[in-house]
Amino acid sequence: MSLLEFIRPFSGIAPIALWTTPMADYSPMFPTRSPIRPGIHFPLGATAGLDGTNFAIYSAHATRMELCLFDGPKLQRETRISLPECTDHVWHGFVPGVKAGQVYGYRAHGPYEPEMGHRFNPQKVLLDPYAKAIGRPMVRWGPPSSATVPGLPGRT
């Protein structure tokens, strides 16, 4: 599939980002049971196509990136999919069957080295910085939404 074939016109409504091992079997919230495909690393963000959505997010230091798909803005059920490819520091994957309006976020795995500026914490769901919409209201910033854990050794 060429880049031009992939980036076809779509409904104009992008998947909705949440702000905050490739799977062979998807949860019932998805209409397909096809495995995730490598997708492409451009454009950044979520790009809905006719048969699924390509997800691409930049991180120069992540060791793994998980795409988190939710059943709606109340976040009652989460399906995690490891993005299978990383090209030029862009993690990417194409998920068949995911349509515009899907609520999603990311979990980034990598080093916790504050002295180097790295505060990876896969416990936190991250907003897609390239999102076209946010699927729920902003929360108050504080320890629960912080990248650090007060009181733990080495973490302030």
Structure explained in plain terms:
The chain has 156 residues and is mainly β. The protein is built from one helix and ten strands, in the order αββββββββββ. The protein has one helix spanning 3-6; strands at 16-17, 45-48, 52-58, 64-70, 78-82, 85-87, 90-96, 103-109, 112-113, 118-119. Strands 1-8-4-5 form a four-stranded mixed β-sheet, with no helix packed on it. Strands 2-3-7-6 form a four-stranded antiparallel β-sheet, with no helix packed on it. The chain has a two-stranded antiparallel ribbon with strand order 9-10. The longest helix is centred in the first third of the chain and has 4 residues, at 3-6. The radius of gyration is 16 Å and the shape is globular. Residues 1-14 and 18-32 have low confidence and may be disordered.
Task: Please give the largest β-sheet.
Answer: 4 strands, mixed
- DSSP summary, beta strand count: 10
- Label the structural class: mainly beta
Helical fraction equals under 10%
Strand order of the largest sheet: 1-8-4-5
Provide a count of the helices: 1
Shape: globular
| Span of the ends, CA to CA | 47 Å
How do the helices and strands follow one another from N- to C-terminus?
HEEEEEEEEEE
Q: Quick check: average pLDDT?
A: 77
Q: Taking Cα atoms only, what radius of gyration do you get, to the nearest Å?
A: 16 Å
Determine the strand fraction and express it as a percent band.
Answer: 25-35%
Low-confidence stretches: 1-14, 18-32
Q: Which oligomeric form is depicted?
A: single chain
Give the tags:
mainly beta; 4-stranded mixed β-sheet; 4-stranded antiparallel β-sheet; 156 residues; disordered N terminus
